[in-house]
């Protein structure tokens, strides 16, 4: 494909430089000075927090990355850059010779590599221009492909060529690839109702909608009158494919308007993956086509995988997610409550609210099975707010039943902090419930703070001003626990059950628990030990002046009616003791 010269005309290059050292930024800037072909606008980024903010909220043409700048592993950081920057090219810099470092970095996702020792203004400018022009070429080609789809362009030869190139890239990099073959159901009836021209418009609108929901690295083409094909590159696992299918299904679920008439369409999707289902373009399309015809057996928009194992794993995830959406609407979710016992008085000081799912076919589904699905799909956000609503409702009921002062603890997912209206939503829930906010406790893990620490801290401060208290869950298992205790409004820490259950078997576990209790008490923070199941564990924690315990020794998680009965029995026992 030949591009007009004006699309490649030099202009201003927007550059993001990821390096911790400001002198390196100045040095790289100096290497660009005086170039008559391009004017570089370089932005320096010295730390990871700014990096995330800049990449997501600003626009750059090329990212220059010093390899010492990352958050764990180079490969995972490159993957993060690709996703966050919408696949912008990354020029990697390091001290090692290209022969030693370039191959692994290029496979991991870098677009080019330069050795710092050999870096001068000539090879630095050349590398940047090549990456910039290559990216412009890719964008123009992508735009041209989009125009071809939008105008009803059908070219199976071009599709096979594109699929073959994608397969070669996947083979070289050791990546997997997926081909989605999409066929509109009962397209003949649409043709008869609206005519061929209007039906063509419907296909164009669907293709345009789907194209906007895909990643930049993915390709979409129309390969028949009622057929579209999507090439999904750089597939890590079945979850990557489920995310793409989810977007495709959601896009197809929206009605299409033609000449003022609303048309609801359904489609059948066949999915074939490289290398499991084939290693040639012909084999992959044939098997995706076969899977698509299998999907035709199911009513509505449906999908089938050619590969049985992927069908099982990815298909199960999608079905579970669909069921979970219905569960939220259909009142299948329920809270169970596990009491927390004060060790000094043996009274019930509070309860932890734990989510359970009463599936109409599978029965009671445990949180270990559905919470990860809820978090990956984002459903955990509305579910989390539902849990807070239910907890506030029960908090009010418990006070009316004669159990004042009972604390209700709710787990807060890291996904909640992705919602920029989290504080506002929680405030509205507790305002409508009219409860004593000092009896509502939100439990969070350290991972909840990792995405955007500043935003998380601001949310916690605002909620703390409303009277809500916070507990740090799984304390001792993360790396930033001490700093969290210093900078966050934490009033309680929960010792992870993995330490409690090692009591009697591990001297290290005893030392760790002693240290946690001592540290927390020195900061005027209370301590709850989770997973207490034996008399020996209970006695050790009592000797160390642990404040509260939670575990099977006293009570398992239970439905609300059973909790009320449990509280009444303990209240009667307390009266008898007096």
From TrEMBL:
Keyword Metal-binding: no
Domain GGDEF: 175-308
Domain of life: Bacteria
Alphabetized Gene3D superfamilies for the sequence: 3.30.70.270, EAL domain
Swiss-Prot/TrEMBL keywords: c-di-GMP
GO molecular function: cyclic-guanylate-specific phosphodiesterase activity
SMART domains according to UniProt: EAL, GGDEF
Record EC number: 3.1.4.52
Keyword DNA-binding carried by entry: no
Domain EAL, chain residue ranges per copy: 317-571
Listed name of the protein: cyclic-guanylate-specific phosphodiesterase
Gene source species: Marinobacter salsuginis
């Amino acid at each position: 494909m030949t591009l007009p010269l004006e699309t490649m005309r030099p202009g201003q290059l927007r550059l993001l430089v990821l390096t911790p050292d400001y002198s390196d930024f100045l040095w790289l800037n100096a290497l660009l000075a005086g170039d008559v072909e391009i004017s570089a606008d370089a932005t320096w980024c010295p730390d990871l927090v700014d990096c995330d903010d800049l990449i997501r909220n600003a626009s750059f043409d090329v990212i220059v990355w010093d390899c010492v700048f990352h958050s764990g592993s180079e490969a995972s950081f490159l993957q993060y850059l690709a996703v966050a920057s919408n696949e912008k090219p990354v020029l990697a810099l390091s001290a090692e010779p290209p022969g030693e470092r370039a191959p692994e970095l290029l496979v991991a996702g870098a677009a080019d590599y330069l050795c710092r020792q050999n870096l001068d203004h000539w090879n630095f400018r050349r590398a940047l221009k090549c990456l910039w022009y290559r990216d412009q070429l890719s964008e123009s080609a992508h735009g041209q492909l989009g125009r071809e789809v939008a105008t009803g362009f059908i070219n199976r030869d071009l599709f096979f060529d594109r699929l073959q190139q994608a397969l070669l890239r996947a083979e070289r990099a050791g990546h997997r690839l997926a081909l989605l073959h999409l066929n509109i159901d009962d397209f003949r009836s649409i043709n008869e109702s609206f005519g061929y021209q209007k039906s063509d418009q419907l296909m164009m609108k669907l293709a345009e909608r789907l194209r906007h929901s895909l990643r930049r690295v993915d390709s979409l083409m129309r390969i028949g009158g009622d057929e579209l094909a999507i090439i999904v590159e750089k597939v890590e696992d079945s979850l990557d494919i489920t995310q793409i299918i989810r977007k495709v299904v959601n896009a197809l679920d929206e009605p299409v308007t033609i000449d003022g008439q609303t048309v609801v369409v359904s489609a059948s999707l066949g999915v074939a993956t490289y290398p499991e289902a084939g290693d040639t373009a012909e084999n992959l399309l044939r098997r995706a086509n076969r899977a698509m015809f299998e999907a035709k057996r199911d009513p509505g928009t449906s999908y089938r995988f050619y590969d049985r194992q992927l069908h099982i794993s990815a298909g199960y995830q999608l079905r579970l997610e669909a069921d979970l959406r219905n569960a939220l609407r259909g009142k299948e979710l329920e809270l169970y409550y596990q009491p927390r016992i004060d060790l000094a008085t043996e009274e019930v000081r509070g309860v932890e609210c734990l989510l359970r799912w009463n599936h109409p076919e599978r029965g009671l589904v445990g949180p270990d099975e559905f919470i990860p699905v809820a978090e990956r799909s984002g459903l955990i956000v509305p579910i989390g707010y539902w849990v807070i609503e239910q907890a506030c409702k029960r908090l009010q009921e418990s006070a009316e039943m004669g159990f004042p002062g009972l604390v209700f603890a709710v787990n807060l997912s890291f996904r909640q902090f992705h919602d920029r209206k989290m504080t506002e939503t929680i405030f509205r829930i507790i305002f409508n419930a009219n409860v004593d906010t000092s009896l509502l406790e939100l439990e969070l893990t350290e991972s909840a703070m990792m995405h955007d620490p500043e935003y998380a801290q601001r949310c916690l401060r605002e909620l703390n001003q409303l009277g809500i208290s916070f507990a740090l869950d799984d304390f001792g298992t993360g790396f930033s626990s001490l700093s969290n205790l210093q900078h966050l409004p934490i009033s309680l820490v929960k010792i992870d059950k993995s330490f409690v259950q090692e009591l009697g078997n591990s001297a290290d576990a005893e030392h760790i628990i002693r240290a946690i209790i001592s540290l927390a008490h020195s900061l005027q923070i209370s301590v709850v030990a989770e997973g207490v199941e034996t008399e020996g564990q209970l006695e050790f924690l009592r000797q160390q002046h642990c404040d509260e315990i939670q575990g099977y020794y006293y009570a398992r998680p239970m439905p609300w009616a059973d909790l009320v009965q449990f509280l009444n029995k303990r209240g009667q026992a307390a009266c008898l003791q007096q």
